[in-house]
């Protein structure tokens, strides 16, 4: 049983083919940064944040990189999970429309059908955020499930727009579907997308050993990533399955959003927390202490 | 007319089952086929009914060359019976009637009548697995009689029957055949039966079957005939 | 034989034509010519080979468990007689149960990686094998069973001597379904949680709309299943030669 | 006997579940306590999603049956076609189609039709394979006897082939129906906005495991109902065709 | 010792197959069971071998009550043969040897020897579907002889055989039985055969079977005996 091997840190990532989610960990792995910090890390890829959280709760995975929404939603459900390091605050999410679509800007979404993954997901949150910030009311979110189903629905014209990380737009373009991506990062500054999270108990017990090493490794990896375009693009091609052109585009668009300091945008987490009742993910808004452990980002 | 068999050669793959078989069966005649076990009697019967394609020679029924089954002219009792395991005795007997388009009520009546003749009125509703070996054989006989074909090919139809039943059925069969003028080719391993029932007897050699002799019954004394047959077979 | 290859060729041509005229986008379904060029180049990459190896190993392990467990349980249940209807209903329920919500339990009990994925594959594959084997075993000719018992065979010998040979075609038929489903189970597990393997690769290729590579990987995955099928078929041919009617002439007439 | 077995299995399952949660062996997030699931069960409105999923599965299954049984009969009866196509059938059956669901969705859309087709595809292969097998195993003597009595073509199929092969076909149908149902659910799980699969996906999205398992329980209930109906229908079918 | 049958009652569900059957078979004795088709002979034989549970009464073999099959003591020829369709004639005969743990080579030798005795040396490699009806029956006989059980229960073992073969096999059987001191219960529908082979004959009534008479052969003149049996059965 690999999970029983002592010393190995199982690090979960969600949607391991997403640039923002996966690249720092993959860099750290490929460049030997984890090893340099005395860590033996095995990266485990989960298709859904909830599965990753379940694995953390079950103890098979010690820490994971999830979205801020995952952390606060778990905490609101009484799960001992705390954000301790921010990898990227700005969201890579974008509204993707066909080139010929009349939707040219976010307010145009008023009354349109927009593909999301599921109700209560980050994409659902994004739709609500757009409505709230731009006044585009009556947006009809259509739950479509997997990203591939979203792109298929958009291509067929079943929905007017979809919400996915921006690199999906590049992939669609590269595959011959003319689409335009409208990023939503500047809608709000209160955002905390990529977040390392672990059970509070584990953080307390490990604060001077694995956790610190992990945060340091992440910091080094992100610094390296931002300084080495060719290597990072190459890794996105080989590990995340991107086409080279798509990887380059994604790098140029998204690499600046990574936060080497690990600083967590608490306002971003709070925004997620407040959205929980609206997303029907929890009745009560959790408090910051429930989902945030500030000990490790202080440095 | 009847059946004319000319120079029939039968084989299973490389294995010869019969060679150069020539004989005929006149309309209304009862002809028995006898020969040692495994010599090829069933195979010849299959060829007669168009169920086994000859490797050589030919079979003609009413002057027409046989190329496949002739259900309106020929009815069968198979050596291994071939009853439908999921159908009751009655519904087994009904099969040829249904295939001829006889309406349901009449079908049932006729089947019951035939089952009565073979002494199975009481077990008409049982499926073959619930019948004794002899009972199953009688169902197969009843089924063959249900067909209105003019020719009956019977492959050891009485093998599993006790002497009383086979004597009774044999007599019944003869009466029925005479009434309706049916033509019969009868495979049996009972010399007595062959002598008692047949107009002519075709004696086959050990496999691959050839014709050893064709004997006309009635011209000789039954005892002598029996002795002669025994001699032919046991030599 | 020729008929089969002709059909395959026809299908491939139809696929190519359809892709070039109707679909016109190789996001998921690429024309075979591209699958052959772009796709096979991708297959040759060491990472891809490694992933394929890992998944094939898992699939073979899952199928081995499927086959052994499925056939054994199926035979045992099929011969208990009175248990058959109940067991059949139970198995059908298990079969129709969406297993995905239970995968976290698999991870918890079997650990990450090999064992949980194999277990997930095996549970997908074993149920149809149990169902098929059980149904076949309960239909075996009772006379033969009685006769064999009368000759001194115990339960096990009756199983191996009568039930197993008599059920070979049905067992092999259900093993084919079992092979397809255990492969599916392994892939689903890898898609949900993976450290490596093809599931991971497929997720990335789907997300990045890389049709030719995706199709090539799927085809490569199927090769494992096809190999299992070929072996099963060869085994079946050997075991049930007696069924092949040795009377070609008689049969042509009888058709 | 049968009821006893059901009771025993149900009791064992519930007991194991209860023990796992009450002893804390498994966290409530992964396996929620029974009473919470019961509460969650009361809050669901299962009729519409179940009806949608059942209808889709039934459609797919019906399509598959209509195609697979005749094809299986032909492949079982004709040695030549069998040699040529049976291996092909088994090979295509091995393609993990659920994984490729987006491909299907890209052409058929995400609505009912793609789910019906997916369910149908999965149901098709077990039915076709089982039918082929069952037809191949028909006692050739029965066929010969039937032909000698004048049956041909459709008659032969109706009176010998189908009744003889029926038990085998029915066990294939059972597997096919199960697969149709579970793949429709999987299709809804992967992509869609209605049906039991969607409800499962939606409730697994958040952290309300109780709701998720409530839907699992509902899915089991649906399976039991579908299976009971199927068994009843199969029994009637065997009664009418094997008389 | 041998076999003791006391007050045996047999039924299939509601259907009675035999009532109050009492007789015994002494060690080394050859006892025939005769009666009309469907009366219950096969059922009685099954009960003797522990394959059909009595509804009443009991069967004792060597003093021990029979509750299930006794393969080491009893060998069978079934009326419907029960050959393995997927095994060649030789491998069918090998079954009881294999079950007894006889090593492969010896098994083969012994099977070939037995097949030779029943005249099937040449078709040892064929499967049952490739054999004629009589050949299949001889395979079943050879298989029963392959068992080293002291008691043989034979259910119409010669039914599908021609007279020459059955006479030969009957003689061979008698010789073998005498040599090895086997006990035999023999169901037949041939009175002649019963008279020729048996020490005693158990005559059954039409079904449900009861004992009509048990006749000891040898004390009476064969012709009178035959006449008597015919009278008993045909009355
Ligand atoms: N499995 C069964 N289920 C129900 N009834 C049966 C079953 N087997 C036999 N019977 C009935 O029991 C009676 C006796 O059958 P049995 O086979 O013992 O007769 P038999 O004397 O051997 O006849 P035969 O000489 O025709 O073989 C018959 O009426 C038959 O219908
Ligand atoms: N389907 C078959 N395939 C191969 N060989 C066969 C087949 N059927 C019969 N044979 C062979 O053909 C020969 C003749 O068989 P057939 O059944 O015609 O004999 P028979 O005279 O009817 O014997 P019996 O009196 O024992 O029924 C036998 O040697 C047998 O082995
Ligand atoms: Mg014959
Ligand atoms: Mg009998």
UniProtKB/TrEMBL annotation, chains B, E:
Coiled-coil segments on the chain, per record: none
Keyword ATP-binding: yes
Domain of life: Bacteria
SUPFAM superfamilies named among the record's database cross-references: P-loop containing nucleoside triphosphate hydrolases (SSF52540)
Swiss-Prot/TrEMBL keywords: ATP-binding, Nucleotide-binding, Transport
CDD domains: ABC_NrtD_SsuB_transporters
Presence of keyword Cytoplasm: no
Record-annotated ABC transporter domain positions: 3-231
InterPro entries, per database record: AAA+_ATPase, ABC_transporter-like_ATP-bd, ABC_transporter-like_CS, ABC_transporter_ATP-bind, P-loop_NTPase
Protein name listed in UniProt: ABC transporter domain-containing protein
Taxonomic lineage of the native organism: Bacteria, Bacillati, Actinomycetota, Actinomycetes, Micromonosporales
From TrEMBL, chain C:
Transmembrane segments: 59-78, 90-112, 183-207, 214-232
Pfam families membership: BPD_transp_1
Keywords: Cell membrane, Membrane, Transmembrane, Transmembrane helix, Transport
Domain ABC transmembrane type-1: 52-232
Record membrane topology: Multi-pass membrane protein
Membrane listed as a keyword: yes
Gene3D superfamilies, alphabetized: MetI-like
Subcellular location: Cell membrane
Family according to the record: Belongs to the binding-protein-dependent transport system permease family.
Name the record gives this protein: Taurine ABC transporter permease
UniProtKB/TrEMBL annotation, chain D:
Lineage top rank: taxon: Bacteria
Sorted UniProt keywords: Cell membrane, Membrane, Transmembrane, Transmembrane helix, Transport
Family: Belongs to the binding-protein-dependent transport system permease family.
Occurrences of domain ABC transmembrane type-1 (ranges): 50-230
Membrane spanning residue stretches: 57-76, 88-110, 116-135, 212-237
Record's keyword annotation contains Repeat: no
Principal localisation: membrane
Species of provenance: Paractinoplanes durhamensis
Pfam family, one: BPD_transp_1
Subcellular location: Cell membrane
Bilayer topology term: Multi-pass membrane protein
Name of the protein in question: Taurine ABC transporter permease
């Amino acid at each position: 049983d690999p999970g029983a091997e002592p010393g190995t840190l199982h690090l979960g990532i969600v949607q391991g083919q997403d640039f923002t989610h996966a690249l720092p960990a993959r860099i750290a792995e490929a460049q030997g940064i984890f090893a340099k910090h005395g860590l033996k890390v095995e990266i485990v890829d989960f298709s859904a944040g909830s599965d990753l959280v379940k694995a953390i709760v079950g103890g098979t995975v010690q820490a994971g990189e999830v979205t801020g929404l995952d952390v606060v939603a778990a905490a609101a459900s009484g799960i001992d999970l705390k954000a301790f390091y921010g990898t990227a605050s700005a969201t890579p999410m974008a509204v993707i429309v066909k080139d010929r679509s009349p939707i040219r800007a976010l307010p145009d979404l008023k009354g349109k059908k927009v593909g999301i993954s599921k109700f209560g997901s980050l994409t659902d949150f994004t739709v609500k955020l757009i409505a709230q910030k731009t006044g585009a009311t009556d947006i009809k979110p259509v739950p479509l499930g997997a990203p591939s189903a979203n792109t298929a629905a958009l291509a067929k014209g079943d929905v007017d727009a979809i919400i996915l990380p921006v690199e999906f737009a590049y992939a669609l373009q590269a595959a011959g579907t003319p689409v335009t991506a409208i990023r939503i990062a500047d809608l709000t500054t209160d955002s905390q997308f990529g977040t390392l999270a672990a059970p509070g108990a584990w953080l307390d017990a490990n604060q001077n050993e694995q956790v610190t090493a992990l945060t340091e490794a992440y910091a080094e990896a992100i610094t390296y990533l931002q300084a080495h375009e060719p290597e990072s693009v190459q890794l996105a091609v080989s590990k995340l399955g991107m086409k080279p052109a798509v990887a380059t585009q994604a790098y140029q668009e998204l690499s600046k959003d990574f936060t080497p300091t690990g600083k967590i945008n608490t306002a971003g987490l709070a925004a997620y927390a407040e959205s929980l009742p609206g997303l029907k993910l929890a009745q009560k808004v959790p408090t910051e202490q429930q989902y945030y452990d500030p000990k490790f980002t202080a440095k | 007319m009847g059946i004319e068999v000319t120079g029939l050669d039968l084989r299973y793959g490389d294995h010869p089952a019969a060679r150069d078989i020539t004989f005929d069966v006149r309309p209304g005649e009862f002809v028995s086929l006898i020969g040692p076990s495994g010599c090829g009697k069933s195979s010849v019967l299959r060829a007669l009914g168009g169920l086994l394609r000859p490797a050589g020679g030919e079979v003609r029924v009413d002057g027409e060359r046989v190329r496949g089954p002739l259900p309106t002219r020929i009815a069968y009792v198979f050596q291994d019976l071939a009853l439908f395991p999921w159908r009751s005795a009655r519904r087994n007997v009904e099969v040829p009637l249904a295939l001829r388009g006889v309406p349901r009520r009449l079908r049932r009546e006729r089947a019951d009548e035939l089952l009565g003749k073979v002494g199975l009125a009481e077990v008409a509703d049982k499926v073959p697995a619930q019948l004794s070996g002899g009972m199953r054989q009688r169902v197969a006989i009843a089924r063959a009689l249900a067909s209105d074909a003019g020719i009956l090919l019977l492959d050891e139809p009485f093998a599993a029957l006790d002497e009383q039943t086979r004597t009774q059925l044999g007599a019944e069969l003869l009466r029925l055949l005479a009434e309706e003028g049916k033509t019969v080719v009868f495979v049996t391993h009972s010399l007595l039966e062959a002598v008692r029932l047949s107009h002519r007897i075709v004696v086959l050699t050990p496999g691959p079957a050839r014709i050893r002799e064709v004997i006309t019954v009635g011209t000789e004394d039954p005892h002598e005939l029996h002795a002669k047959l025994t001699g032919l077979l046991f030599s | 034989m020729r008929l089969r290859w002709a059909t395959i060729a026809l299908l491939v041509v139809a696929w190519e034509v359809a892709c070039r005229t109707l679909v016109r986008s190789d996001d998921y379904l690429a024309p075979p010519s591209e699958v052959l060029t772009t796709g096979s180049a991708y297959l040759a990459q060491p990472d891809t080979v490694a992933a394929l190896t890992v998944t094939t190993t898992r699939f073979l392990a899952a199928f081995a468990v499927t086959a052994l467990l499925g056939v054994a349980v199926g035979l045992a249940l099929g011969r208990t007689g009175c248990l058959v209807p109940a067991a059949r209903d139970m198995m059908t329920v298990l079969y129709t149960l969406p297993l995905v919500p239970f995968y976290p339990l698999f991870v918890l009990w079997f650990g990450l990686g090999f064992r949980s994925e194999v277990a997930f594959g095996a549970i997908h594959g074993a149920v149809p094998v149990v169902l098929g084997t059980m149904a076949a075993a309960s239909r075996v000719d009772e006379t033969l069973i009685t006769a064999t018992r009368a000759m001194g065979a115990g339960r096990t010998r009756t199983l191996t001597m009568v039930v197993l040979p008599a059920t070979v075609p049905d067992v092999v038929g259900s093993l084919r379904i079992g092979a397809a489903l255990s492969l599916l189970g392994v892939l689903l597990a890898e898609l949900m949680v993976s450290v490596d393997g093809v599931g991971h690769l497929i997720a990335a290729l789907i997300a990045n709309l890389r049709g030719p590579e995706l199709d090539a990987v799927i085809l490569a995955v199927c090769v494992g299943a096809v190999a299992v099928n070929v072996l099963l078929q060869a085994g079946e041919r050997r075991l049930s030669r007696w069924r092949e009617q040795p009377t070609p002439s008689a049969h042509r007439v009888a058709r | 006997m049968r009821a006893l077995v059901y009771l025993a299995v149900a009791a064992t399952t519930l007991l194991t579940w209860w023990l796992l949660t009450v002893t804390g062996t498994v966290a409530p997030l992964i396996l929620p306590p029974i009473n919470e699931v019961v509460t969650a069960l009361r809050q669901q409105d299962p009729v519409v999603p179940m009806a949608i999923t059942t209808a889709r599965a039934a459609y797919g299954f019906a399509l598959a049956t209509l195609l697979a049984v005749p094809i299986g009969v032909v492949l079982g009866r004709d040695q030549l076609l069998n040699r040529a196509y049976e291996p092909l059938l088994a090979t295509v059956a091995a393609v993990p189609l659920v994984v490729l669901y987006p491909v299907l969705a890209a052409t058929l859309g995400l609505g009912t039709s793609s789910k019906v087709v997916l369910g149908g595809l999965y149901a098709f292969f077990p039915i076709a394979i089982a039918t082929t097998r069952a037809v191949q195993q028909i006692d050739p003597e029965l066929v010969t006897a039937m032909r000698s009595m004048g049956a041909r073509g459709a008659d032969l199929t109706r009176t010998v082939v189908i009744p003889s092969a029926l038990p085998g076909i029915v066990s294939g149908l059972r597997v096919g129906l199960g697969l149709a149902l579970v793949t429709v659910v999987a299709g809804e799980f992967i992509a869609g906005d209605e049906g039991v699969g969607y409800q499962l996906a939606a409730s697994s999205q958040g952290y309300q495991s109780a709701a998720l398992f409530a839907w699992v329980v509902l899915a089991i209930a649906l399976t039991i109902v579908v299976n009971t109906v199927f068994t009843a229908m199969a029994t009637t079918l065997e009664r009418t065709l094997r008389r």
